[in-house]
Amino acid sequence: MWSLIVLVTLVVIGAIFFAARRKWIAPWREIDQLVRQVGRGEQPRTFLVAGSKEAQRVGVALEEILTRQRELDKQIAKRESGTQAIFSAMQDGLLVVDSDRRFVLANETFRNLFSFPDVSKGTPLLEVVRDPALDRAIADTLQKAKPLRSELLLNGFQVELNAVPTKNEAGQISGAVVLFHDISDLKRADQIRRDFVANVSHELRTPLSILRGYIETMLDDPKMPRGETARILEVMEQHTKRLGLLANDLLTLAQLEAGSSNLQWSEIDLLRFFSDLVRDWKKKLAAKGLKAVVDVADDCSAISADETQLREVFDNLLDNALKYSNKNGEIRLTAARRGNDAILEVSDDGIGIAQEDLPRIFERFYRADKARSRELGGTGLGLSIVKHIAQLHGGRVEAESELGKGTTIRLSLPAVTES
Questions:
Q1: Engineering a disulfide at 297: which of 103, 332, 336, 409 sits with its beta carbon 3.0 to 4.6 angstroms away?
Q2: Quick one: residue 156, left, alpha or beta (phi over 0 = left, psi -120 to 50 = alpha)?
Q3: Residues in the chain with pLDDT < 70?
C-alpha cells in the first residue's frame, strides 16, 4: 500500500516537474537563444515562444525591438549617406579635429588637396598633414576659442583657411572645424593682372616719352631745318603706328577674353586660303628673300571656321615668322588631317626659341627676345590672340622650336566631317 502511494506521488511530482519545465524553463531557453541571435544582428526564424504568456510577451517584445532597431539603422545610414554626399559635393576641403588636434573627419576634397589616404580616427594631425603652420593655426583657434581666418601655402597650394572651434553640451571646447579654400587660381589671376598693368604701362611709356620729347624739341626750335623736321616726324609716325597697333591688339584681346566675339562660321578651302595669304604677304616676303611653301593634304582640304578670325591668326603667325627668319630662308604653311582634327602649321627656319621660353610664349606681352621684339615693332600680344582664337574655335595651339633651327606653331582645329 505504501509502495503504491509513493509511486503515485512520484508520478504526480514528475508530471508537475515536466509541466513546469515545459511552461517555464524551456521557453526561457528559447528566449535566451532569441536574445543571442538579435544581439548578433541575425534574423530569427520565428519569435513565437511556447509556454507561459509572460514568455510569449517577451518574444513579441524582442521582435518589436529588432524591427525598431533595423528601422533606426536605416535612418542612420540614410543620414550618413546624405552627409557624405554633402561632404563629397563640397568644393572646399573639410577637416574636423578634436580638442587634442587629433583627426576626426575629412572630406574627399581635403584628401585630394593633401594627397593622403584614409586615416584612422584619433591620428595626430601632424601625422596626417606634416605642416607646422596648419597645426599652429588650429592650436590658436582651440586656445583662443575664436574663429580664425588666414592664408597659408600648403602642399604647393595657396589656401584660405577658416577654422571655427566647436563646443560640447557643457560649453567646453571639443575640437575645431576647418575649411580649406584653394585660392591658387585667384592669386595667379591677380598676379597676371598686375603684370598686365605693368606691361601695358611699360609699352605705352616708351613711345609716349619719345613723342613728348620730339614735340618739345620742335616747340623749342620753330626754325628747325626742314630735313631734321622730316626725320623727327618720321620717327613720330613710327611710334604713333606702334601705339595704334598696341591699342588694336589690346581691344582684340579684350573682346576675345570676354567672349564677345561672335564667330561667323563658314567652310574654308584651305588651299585658296593659304594662296591668298601668301599673295598678300608676297612683297614683305620678297623684301627679305623668303620663299613661301604651301602644302595642303587631300584629306584636309577644308575646315569650318570664322575666316576673318582665322586670317588674323595666320597674319600674326606669318608676321612672327617673317621677323625671326633669316634672309633667303623658307616659310612653310601646311595642313593635314589627324583623327578628328585639322592640323595647320606655320614653320620657319629662323633663330628659334629657347626651350625655357616655349611654355610662356602664348602669355600676354611675353617676349623670348625682348630687345629684338621691340626693335622689330611687335606688341607682344600676337600669340596670345592666336591662342584665344583657337580656343574660341574649340581648338588649341602649341609650339615646337630649337635655337638656330626655326620654329613651328601648330594649330589644331575640329575638321569638317565629310558626308
A1: 336
A2: left
A3: 1-32, 34-35, 38-43, 45-60, 62-63, 66, 73, 75-90, 117, 258-261, 367-379, 416-419
Q: Which set of grid coordinates corresponds to residue 21?
A: 519545465
The answer to whether domain 263-419 has CATH 3.60.150.10 is no
Note the pLDDT tens digit of each residue in 244-289.
Answer: 777 877 777 777 776 656 788 899 999 999 999 999 999 999 999 9
CATH of 186-260, one of 3.30.930.10, 3.40.47.10, 1.10.287.130, 1.10.3370.10: 1.10.287.130
Q: Could you please report the per-residue DSSP string of 265-333?
A: EEEEEHHHHHHHHHHHTHHHHHHTT-EEEEEE-GGGSEEEEEHHHHHHHHHHHHHHHHHHSPTT-EEEE
User: Cα–Cα–Cα angle for 27, 33, 35, nearest 5°?
Assistant: 105
List 95's β-bridge partners, or say none.
106, 178
Q: Is the dihedral of CA 322, 326, 332, 338 positive or negative?
A: negative
pTM reported for the whole predicted model: 0.55
Q: E strands, 209-284, where?
A: 265-269
